[in-house]
Write a structure and sequence with these properties.
Elements lengths: L3 E7 L2 H13 L5 E3 L13 E2 L9 E2 H14 L3 E3 L3 E5 L5 E5 L2 E10 L3 E3 L7 H4 L4 E2 L2 H4 L7 E5 L3 H10 L5 E5 L9 H8 L4 E4 L3 E8 L2 E8 L6 E5 L2 E4 L3 E3 L29 E3 L11 H21 L1
Parallel strand pairs: 1-2, 1-8, 2-5, 8-19, 10-17, 11-12, 11-17, 12-13
Antiparallel strand pairs: 3-4, 6-7, 7-8, 9-18, 14-15, 15-16
The chain binds NADP nicotinamide-adenine-dinucleotide phosphate.
Length: 307
């Protein structure tokens, strides 16, 4: 007979490992499917300076390895495999991994969201060096430097405004004339003395020299003409995609695919919990994800006790 686990955690990252740590210390013997590329978005981050407890900062992959080790020390079992599908229509819940079915009384989903990248030429080499998708995480590294922000939505406006605290100049690069951003957020950016807005430009190629990113070749989508811009930092803010396609129809999500909580960290299905960027369109920080992972673990523990 297939064993029924108390808790299966789907997805790694700060939310998943923290949920793993708490449920393991709660003697629930949790099983985690961490994904083939375990660790989440922080595996692409070079330095993390805003996670409390690391006075000298820490590299993303190193922090993820430590979070994992800490949870494993208390009994979290981690399998670096992807979940293909789930069935939450009856209990115990079913999770299919490499064709094999696993059963659990409760599930915690921490599959995160991926920032959308431009995939312009040279981007892979500059990821986590000069090109970033998180101003809150990396803005500080660009003090007194010229940076660009790509995008025309609220995220781009927010990132551009935030970056004026550090950068000497911020240029918003948008591919057309109209902005999706709200008028208030747009006005705040348009009226800022440190910000310039460049319209009808799409990043075609990132430029670099021996010290890192040095600029970009921008293309005008209307006529294909090319224009060079100098910058040592670039922030892509063109949206995020939550990693929820494997959940289709199983729990309630919003129109963009983010999971909706119905009560605390519980989803629309009692016994299924979610934490981290897979539910969060606002904060998207390692520390907030870790905090929510702890909440989900405590909610799952309480729910199991009561049910
Ligand atoms: P968004 O509203 O979908 O905007 C994405 C922007 O990126 C658009 O301007 C889009 O251009 C551009 N874009 C998309 N793909 C591109 C590509 N390949 N190359 C160049 N540009 C590209 O996304 P978001 O700004 O992340 O916001 C997501 C949601 O969160 C929104 O509902 C937003 O209101 C909300 N949000 C709210 C706040 C706040 O209230 N404080 C802050 C951040 C986000 P086009 O317009 O040309 O398609």
């Amino acid at each position: 007979m297939t064993a029924v686990h108390n808790v299966i955690i789907i997805g790694s990252g700060p939310a998943g490992y923290t949920a793993g740590l708490y449920t393991a210390r709660g003697m629930l013997e949790p099983l985690m499917f961490a994904g083939y590329a375990s660790g989440g978005q922080l595996m692409l981050t070079s330095d993390i300076e805003n996670f409390p407890g690391y006075p000298e900062g820490i590299a993303g992959p190193e922090m993820m390895a430590e979070l994992r080790q800490q949870a494993e020390r208390f009994g979290l079992t981690v399998e670096d495999k992807n979940v293909e599908k789930v069935d939450f229509s009856s209990r115990p819940f079913k999770v299919t991994v490499e064709g094999e079915e696993h059963l659990a009384k409760a599930i915690i989903i921490t599959t995160g969201a991926d920032a959308i990248w431009l995939n312009a030429e040279g981007e892979r080499e500059q990821k986590g060096k000069g090109v970033s998708t998180c101003a809150t995480c990396d803005g500080f590294f660009f003090r007194d430097q010229e940076v660009i922000v790509v995008g025309g939505g609220d995220s781009a406006m927010e990132e551009a405004h935030f970056l004026t605290r550090f950068a000497s100049k911020v240029t918003v690069v948008h591919r057309r004339e109209y902005f999706r951003a709200s008028q208030t957020m747009y006005d705040r950016v348009a009226n800022h003395p440190k910000i310039e807005i460049v319209l009808h430009r799409q990043v075609k190629r990132w430029l670099s020299d021996e010290s890192g990113l040095s600029g970009a070749i921008l293309e005008d989508p209307r006529d294909g003409s090319e224009h060079e811009i100098s910058c040592t930092g670039a922030f892509i803010a063109i949206g995020h995609t939550p990693n929820t396609p494997f959940l289709e129809g199983q729990v309630k999500t919003d129109e963009s695919g983010y999971i909706i909580h119905s009560e605390h960290t519980m989803t629309s299905v009692p016994g299924i919990f979610a934490a981290g960027d897979v539910v969060d369109t606002r904060y998207r920080q390692a520390i907030t994800a870790a905090g929510m992972g702890c909440q989900a673990a405590m909610d799952a523990e309480k729910w199991l006790e009561e049910n």
